Amino acid sequence: MSIPSPGDHPIDRAALLERDAADPLAAFRDAFDLPDGLIYLDGNSLGAFPRRAREIAERVLLQEWRDGLIRSWNDADWFTLPRRIGDKIAQLIGADAGEVVMADSTSVNLFKVLNAALQLRPGRKNIVSERDNFPTDLYMAEGLAQMRGQGHQLRLVDRPEQIGAALAEDCAVLMLTHVNYRDGRMHDMARITRLAHQNGALVIWDLAHSAGAVPVDLKACDVDFAVGCTYKYLNGGPGAPAFVYAARRWQLTAEQPLSGWWGHATPFTFDTGYRPEQGIGRFLVGSPPIVSMAIAEAGIDLMLEATIAQVRAKSLLLGASFIALVRQECADLDLGLASPEDADVRGSQVSLAHPQGYAIMQALAARGVVGDYREPGILRFGFAPLYLRHADIWDAVATIKDVMITHEWELPQFSLRRAVT
Hints:
Blueprint: H1 13-21, E1 39-40, H2 51-67, H3 72-75, H4 81-92, E2 100-102, H5 106-120, E3 126-130, H6 135-148, E4 153-157, H7 163-167, E5 171-177, H8 189-198, E6 202-206, E7 225-228, E8 243-246, H9 290-305, H10 308-330, E9 336-337, E10 349-353, H11 357-366, E11 369-370, E12 372-374, E13 378-382, H12 390-406
Parallel strand pairs: 1-11, 3-4, 3-5, 5-6, 6-7
Antiparallel strand pairs: 2-8, 7-8, 9-10, 10-13, 12-13
């Protein structure tokens, strides 16, 4: 859809500076080490660097590893780290202590809970998801269905309103991402989970673009399983370990297929046979990556020091200002709004559409406005409220306007595709 012209109340930078002066989250920006002159609008892909991450890294590397060596599994409490951080993440997603554990990657965790859910629904064969779900989720479901055979299949719907009909047809598991990675559209978690349960299916939610960005209440929504990453809005660092949630009601019966020693009931008895832990720990596999896991705690702690209500309130203001300013400043510049107009069904990002979106985004990055690009033709701008200022939105849109008016994006270097977009 095209972005219409501005209304009768134009926005100016002074008004946004006033909003920054009254921002209850303003002090959190100093907790991050951001390059001078950079407007970072890619926290929905990789969060910024928390200053305390350096302190944690030095402690883990120099005190716990260098000096403590093997003793640190006990003395520095490395052994319980996946559960301890999991309990912190639980507070951010509406789960109870003992229902979340930090482990592996989102993709691996999805494989675990998909298998567990299918085991809990014997006789049913369909995994239902959206065609526009994040590809790795679909790949994992497709691969698992092929491995299980016996008629298991991944069934994709093209529109949210088709989910109900798909659930009615032998669905074992509904697997959705709460906030869409491409356009930021957000599902009604409570309504869809209830609909799936009414049809006898279990539900898995991917929270990669939700955790730390929008309110999530897994317990209130009666969710069965969930997965998510920590390197986006939780600012855990590149490739930081992910997390997995299993409702307590399923923990004694859920069978995850990766039966590694860390998920054993008593790993240091070194039994020959496998006995899963009687709780969330059964979703662990191998020895945890202590250094990256410990560093990730810095960003998670910062999010806990804020409140998700404040984070969401500021996110809504940032997104609304961005859309309004693009309308006001770029109405005739061939940019389309790819995200939902309704803020209640939009996560913490706004996506714009343009056929030459990749080159435009590279030109913006060269000017110090960093977002990212997704096919086909989508420019993504993520709003991380802990370190983004309201005035940054004005400056970012001013740069977008100038890049579009001058056609700077047509310079040949901006069309050269790099490995990561």
